[in-house]
């Protein structure tokens, strides 16, 4: 167990956790948003972030502070918390981003870690190498070696109570990300940013983003707090949380506001294109779009940034509630409909259903089948695994609907899309209580047929009869040959 992180609730790969930040004497509930504060530009003051938005933690860049004489002196004299006037926990970045943008920086990992410690950072970051997507494997590997050396330097540096992050790199190579994850897990470091995913998100590559996170998580293990570094758009939070991300940082709220862009959970809108404001935060209830457009530049930027933050924090709360209620996957399905690339992200998430299944609770309140992707959810995967462990009689009828009269078979089980067969005694247990549309889709029938196949393969001695309501021939092809078929719909 990592002492600084405790998982309280889970749903799919998502979790509500507690990150203990000893130096700030604070506990941060995750999933959490860290607004990015540029120490030179105060769009929304840190004090306001805490008081009005409930921010428990923020992130700022120690490299920018280090490189500015006035800021550096003030930070060393007053400490970061007084400098920014923020009562919560403060994480600091190290200049890795500047390194990736400009090719070099003028501090070493030891120097910048010491500096972060001296100015009172609560969570520090070493100088890792953010390897972009799609580089050669050789480059990704050699960059990763450097990052791992930096993590070892960080481990050996005396940082007192300050937590230190261990970025996980490896570009778009899942095997490298997994290796990087297990190396980071093996250090004594505390928080695990999955790095260099910003270019993926800028290009709407949510599918690749999910593969990268899934690989890092396999290396890291279940109790590691994971930070999706540079991810600040609320549209993709539910998806990333479902894959197991705990911390997000948002510069987007301020950067987008500067360009007159308005964040929503369904994507970004240009203020110029809005006739209505689809939000009930204070900014949106007190202004019309025309009134916002008419404000002086600085004021408009602040108002838009405030709205962007409101919508971002609201989504984090909505996600936490969904985890608590056990319907995070339903929320992910809704968000996946916002953009085709988000749907790619969701479908990729379901490629990792086995991995999600390990943390998915055995019982929740309800399973709503709301898209054909639902047929690939972790609950269906788990039911199919469970079919291998159920004991079956010599002759078994699997039938949709009610049990038949007569004693032609040793037993009769229900078969329901998308799960497939199960003993009637389990009818009232999760997830077999799922709410499924009457107009079943092909994916649900195929998943049910695969369930029949799973049962038959593990019990080759059993004589199985499947009574279905008009399943199409293409679906029935998935049922093993030895099964006797009865079409109830043809009666
Ligand atoms: Zn608003």
TrEMBL record:
Gene3D superfamilies reported in the protein's UniProt record: ArcTGT, C1 domain, Queuine tRNA-ribosyltransferase-like
Matches recorded under SUPFAM superfamilies: Pre-PUA domain, tRNA-guanine transglycosylase
Keywords: Glycosyltransferase, Metal-binding, Transferase, tRNA processing, Zinc
Reaction catalysed by this enzyme: guanosine(15) in tRNA + 7-cyano-7-carbaguanine = 7-cyano-7-carbaguanosine(15) in tRNA + guanine
Single Gene Ontology MF annotation: pentosyltransferase activity
Binding site for Zn(2+): 279, 281, 284
Tree of life domain: Archaea
One of the GO BP terms on file: tRNA wobble guanine modification
Annotated tRNA-guanine(15) transglycosylase-like domain residues: 13-340
InterPro entries in UniProt: ArchSynthase1/Queuine_TRR, ArcTGT_C1_sf, TGT-like_sf, TgtA, tRNA_ribo_trans-like
Cofactor: Zn(2+)
Annotated segments matching region Disordered: 123-142
Keyword Transferase: yes
Residues given in the record as substrate binding sites: 128, 196
Active site: 93 (nucleophile)
Entry's EC annotation: 2.4.2.48
Gene Ontology CC: one annotated term: cytoplasm
Protein purpose: Exchanges the guanine residue with 7-cyano-7-deazaguanine (preQ0) at position 15 in the dihydrouridine loop (D-loop) of archaeal tRNAs.
Family per similarity comment: Belongs to the archaeosine tRNA-ribosyltransferase family.
NCBIfam families: arcsn_tRNA_tgt, tgt_general
HAMAP family on file: TgtA_arch (MF_01634)
Record's protein name: tRNA-guanine(15) transglycosylase
GN (gene name): tgtA
């Amino acid at each position: 167990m990592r002492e600084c992180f405790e998982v309280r609730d889970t749903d799919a790969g998502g979790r509500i956790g507690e990150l203990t930040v000893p130096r700030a004497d604070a506990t941060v509930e995750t999933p959490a948003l860290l607004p990015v504060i540029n120490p030179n530009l105060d769009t929304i003051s840190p004090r306001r972030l805490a008081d009005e938005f409930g921010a428990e933690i923020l992130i700022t860049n120690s490299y920018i502070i280090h490189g500015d004489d006035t800021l550096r002196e003030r930070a060393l004299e007053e400490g970061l918390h007084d400098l920014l006037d923020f009562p919560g926990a403060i994480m600091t970045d190290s200049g890795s981003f500047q390194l990736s943008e400009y090719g070099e920086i003028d501090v070493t990992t030891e120097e910048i870690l010491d500096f972060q410690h001296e100015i009172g950072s609560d969570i520090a970051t070493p100088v890792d190498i953010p390897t972009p997507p799609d580089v050669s494997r050789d480059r990704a590997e050699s960059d990763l070696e450097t990052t791992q050396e930096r993590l070892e330097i960080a481990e050996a540096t005396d940082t007192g109570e300050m937590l230190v992050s261990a970025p996980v790199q490896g570009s778009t190579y899942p095997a490298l990300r997994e290796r990087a994850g297990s190396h980071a897990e093996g250090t004594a470091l505390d928080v695990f940013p999955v790095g260099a995913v910003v270019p993926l998100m800028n290009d709407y590559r949510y599918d690749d983003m999910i593969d990268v996170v899934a690989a890092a998580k396999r290396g890291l293990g279940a109790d590691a707090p994971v930070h999706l570094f540079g991810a600040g758009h609320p549209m993709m939070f539910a998806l990333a949380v479902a894959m197991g991300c705990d911390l997000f940082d948002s510069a987007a709220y301020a950067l987008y506001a500067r360009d007159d862009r308005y964040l929503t959970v369904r994507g970004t809108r240009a203020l110029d294109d809005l006739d209505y404001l689809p939000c009930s935060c204070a900014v949106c209830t007190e202004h019309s779009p025309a009134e916002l457009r008419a404000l002086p530049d600085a004021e408009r930027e602040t108002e838009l940034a405030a709205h962007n933050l409101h919508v971002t924090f609201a989504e984090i709360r909505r996600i936490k509630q969904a985890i608590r209620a056990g319907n995070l996957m339903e929320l992910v399905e809704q968000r996946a409909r916002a953009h085709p690339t988000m749907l790619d992200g969701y479908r990729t998430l379901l490629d990792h259903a086995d991995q999600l299944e390990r943390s998915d609770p055995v019982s929740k309140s309800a399973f709503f089948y709301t898209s054909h992707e639902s047929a690939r959810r972790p609950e269906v995967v788990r039911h199919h695994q469970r079919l291998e462990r159920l004991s079956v009689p010599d002759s078994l009828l699997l039938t949709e609907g009610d049990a038949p009269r007569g004693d032609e078979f040793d037993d009769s089980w229900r078969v329901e899309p998308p799960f497939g067969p199960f003993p009637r005694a389990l009818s009232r247990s999760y997830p077999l209580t799922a709410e499924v549309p009457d107009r079943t889709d092909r994916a649900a029938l195929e998943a049910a047929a695969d369930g029949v196949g799973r049962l038959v393969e593990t019990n080759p001695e059993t004589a199985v009869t499947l009574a279905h309501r008009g399943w199409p021939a293409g679906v029935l092809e998935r049922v093993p040959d030895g099964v006797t078929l009865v079409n109830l719909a043809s009666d």
